[in-house]
Amino acid sequence: MSTAERHLSLFEPIRLGPKTLPNRFYQVPHCGTGDLRPGMQTAFRAMRAEGGWGAVCVESASIAPETDHWPVHLARIWDENDVRSLAGTCEAIHQHGSLAGIELWWGGSNSPGLETRTPPRAPSQIAVNGTPWVIPQEIRLADIAEIQAHFVAAADRARRAGFDLIYVYGAHSQGPMQFLSETFNRRTDAYGGSFENRARFWLECLEKVREGVGEKIAVTTRMSVEDFGWGGVSIDEACRFIELADDLVDYWDVNVGSLDWSTDIASSRFFPENSQQPWTSRVRDHTSKPIVCVGRFTNPDTMAAALSSGQCDIIGAARPAISDPFLPNKIRDGRLGDIRECIGCNFCLSRWAQGGAPVACTQNATAGEEYRRGWHPERFSVAANADRTVLVVGAGPAGMECARVLGKRGMDAVHLVDAAPEIGGALEWISTLPRMREWHRVIDYRRIQLDVLRNVTVVNGSRLDLEGVLDYGADIVVLATGSSWVGDGLSAATMAPIPGADASLPHVVTPEQLVLEGKEVGEKTLIYDCDGNFMGVALAERLARVGKAVTLATPAETPAEYSKFTGEVPQVRRTLEECGVTVRVESVVREIGPGAVALGGVYSEASREEEFDSVVLVTQRTSNDGLYRELDDDEERSREAGIEAIYRIGDCVAPRLIGDVVFDGHRLGREIDSASPAVHLPFIREVRVVGGYQDSDYDRQIMAEDADPAPVPQRGNR
């Protein structure tokens, strides 16, 4: 197979000042590894280079101790230790012919200083929404030269580390854009007031960095070209700045948003692919330089259209590159069915937002595990026990992924059995909810992969009980039977069932009953959401759009509280308001009766009775582990049936986010031949222990050229 003619433009080289980008695929700077995990940083970025991304950037790199985002650990470029650490990353990227980029970050008032205990400096003494307790110092004129010197020194370190592309980061209302923005800049000196004065700091930084790094390094900046009303600049102001700075950069990286990232790192529930096009496309008329745009690009046709329309010259990506590091190579080779498309769930962002946890992905379980576990997304070793047959019961996300990995590892025979007519488990019906369609890609990708593995057989419409499993003839049994929503109202809010909650009654409904069974609800319905993720608000929208009077009550401070981490709070609130859903936060259901519900506050014992025809309980899920328990309790019969081992994965162990259950299935498949597959193998911890790890412990070659990949038995090409 070869590249389709309509996609050839994606593989044309392009000049970025003194550097040549070998194709139009550009992994933009994004977080998730940090300076505390140099091995992870190197292996994660190198994997994208191996997969064909023409440029691979590390994340925001703090240029000095005062720009500190702890507990979120970003990269740092403070001193020679950072030069040595990042030099290995650059070398690994260069080995695959890609350019290496770094984003120099000075955050201004966006630097809480919790680790360094350094109060940040900013254009004016104005606190930032989100961390109102952090009030910055106002920068004195004498300080400006010092901060610009930090940029120049950091750029020189980056040059010596081997970076080809150096950013002066300004987007998302970081320090340089705070100078440009009237929201943050209330100065009356030469760096405030008029637009030209407010642009001065950023322009001088670019000029000094360019002069400092010389003619062999490409200099750029990231610019948010529309703030949607708060904290940054408008599209007209952005284009005006681009004209002023055009001679100082070799190319532009443009996006949208400000401190509110929800329109930039936009979830698929609320934004389509390339949703930033109406704003980023306006940049073309104001620059003579190449343009990088982002927009959760996963479809090569959309990418090619973005180039041909003039919207951009280079396809920028963060989440699609996390989801499939080999996306460029798969497009080049015409293997479009093998692309592991980003579903836009923002699981990756949520991990970062919860304190800078290592990068993770719903679609790609190997993301962040390239170094510490030695996982490669496209290569699998032959299992030591490959002569065994495996029965996987349950074809939800965990079961599908486990069967795929076991098939790739050359197991003699893998049978994936499910009672439903289609694979996908709960995700099959979840993806029918409002705004959830793109999540079906989790199923689509695995269906294609399972289809071509001739050692994997998928059996639908077959519900296996204890006798069925014992009679199946498998050597290894994996239970991936998922979870179900409780019908008694058990939740973290009260840690006990709700009096009167009983989903066998006509007026009490669980999500499965509503969506799968079509159980009717009355005209006036209460959705009680203790889950705090997408389910409650999705069901509220679904019912409201068919004319029901819906009230959503939650013990949390906001509906779908987890959306604080996925960047979806503004869209969730706007959608509920648009649909006419009444929202009751910090509310607890104390009792349910026919036609009435006792509702109270989180911080009060009092309650009052309100009329509702139906209550939808989105409270807690419990594991469907009955079959596992039966097998585990009858070890003697299992041995007599020839079953050597029984494992459980995914929600069958404990209900979790989809990304976590996919990881669980993947891990068991990777470690099926370990001494104790039910227990995770140790992974490399990048931490210095007195008398413990030595530098040699970090030299592990996880992607050795002489690795023994499993021969992948296939039925044929799709």
Descriptive keywords:
29% helix, 5-stranded parallel β-sheet, 3 domains, 718 residues, Rossmann fold, TIM Barrel, alpha/beta, FAD/NAD(P)-binding domain, 8-stranded parallel barrel, 17% strand
Question: How are the secondary structure elements laid out?
Answer:
Layout: E1 14-16, E2 19-21, E3 25-27, H1 38-50, E4 55-62, E5 75-76, H2 80-94, E6 99-105, E7 121-122, E8 137-138, H3 141-161, E9 165-169, H4 175-180, H5 195-213, E10 218-224, H6 235-245, E11 251-255, H7 277-280, E12 291-293, H8 300-308, E13 314-317, H9 319-323, H10 327-332, H11 347-353, E14 389-393, H12 397-408, E15 413-418, H13 426-430, H14 441-451, E16 456-460, H15 466-470, E17 476-479, E18 483-485, E19 508-509, H16 511-515, E20 524-529, H17 534-544, E21 549-553, H18 563-566, H19 569-579, E22 582-584, E23 587-593, E24 596-601, E25 607-611, E26 614-618, E27 621-623, H20 626-633, H21 635-640, E28 645-648, H22 658-670
Parallel strand pairs: 3-4, 3-13, 4-5, 4-6, 6-9, 7-8, 9-10, 10-11, 11-12, 12-13, 14-15, 14-17, 15-16, 17-28, 19-26, 20-21, 20-26, 21-22
Antiparallel strand pairs: 1-2, 18-27, 23-24, 24-25
